[in-house]
């Protein structure tokens, strides 16, 4: 019976270890920084702007997350607020950075500058706010 | 030895179950929907508004996430954008909802209405945009 208890104890130890490993969050999640800097952008396009020009802006903005490694997350969408406080803005974007240094590197990046040059003549309003998130 | 293997098999089964339970994401995480509706808000306070009035607004807004169960996530922060496109807004907020129905329930909730009545006389600009996030 001594042999039995040795086997049982070894099995128990091995399976508890397996359980602990399985329950440990994946590396990518545990390494996610606690602080996130949100970069909120909204655009109102000029009335004269054509749908294909708007599409070009959407694609160009989305491409920045692949061109500029400091962009940690990129979200966007079309306004559907019923409150009427969007100042005519139809397009909203939320980019996330890990530091103000990264945000500044994004702002100064040649591809972001080129994007700004593309967008500027097409819009009436560009609203931008950045903040470190609190809860 | 037959008894030994029965005990060993039972131990194995019990511990595999324990491991599986430990590895299962918590209910709140697994139930998180893939789609999220962002509700972005920005305030510019009037120059005459006192710091304690601003603090009252900050506290009142934060309390809505506890009072209104439809609010899935609440983030806020102080603008630090160097771009000067924030229209004087100092405070940014991002609330997350799971549906337009939930967002509308929040807008119509008596506690949100009371918050609106508190804020309105204190601000020059309230900017609001809502959108379903795309990536």
State the CATH topology of chain A.
Answer: Alpha-Beta Plaits
How many distinct folded domains of chain A? 1
Sheet/helix structural class of chain A = alpha+beta
Strand order of the largest sheet of chain A: 2-3-1-4
What share of residues are in beta strands of chain A? Answer: 15-25%
In quaternary terms, these chains amount to: homodimer
* Percent range of helical residues of chain A: 40-55%
Q: What's the count of strands of chain A?
A: 4
How far do the termini of chain A sit from each other? 57 Å
Helix-strand topology string of chain A: HHEHEEHHE
What count of helical segments of chain A does DSSP give? 5
Q: What's the architecture of chain A, going by CATH? A: 2-Layer Sandwich
At the first level of CATH, the class of chain A is: Alpha Beta
The largest β sheet of chain A comes out as: 4 strands, antiparallel
On the 0 to 100 scale, the average pLDDT of chain A is 86
Low-pLDDT runs of chain A: 24-31
Report on the structure:
Two copies of one chain form a homodimer. Chain A has helices at 2-23, 27-30, 51-67, 100-108, 110-119; strands at 37-45, 73-78, 91-97, 123-132. Chain A is of the alpha+beta class and 135 residues long. Chain A has a single domain (30-132), classed as Alpha-Beta Plaits (2-Layer Sandwich), CATH 3.30.70. In chain A, strands 2-3-1-4 form a four-stranded antiparallel sheet. The longest helix of chain A has 22 residues, at 2-23. Chain A is elongated. Residues 24-31 of chain A have low confidence and may be disordered. At the A-B interface, α1, β1, β2, α4 and β4 of A face α1, β1, β2, α4 and β4 of B.
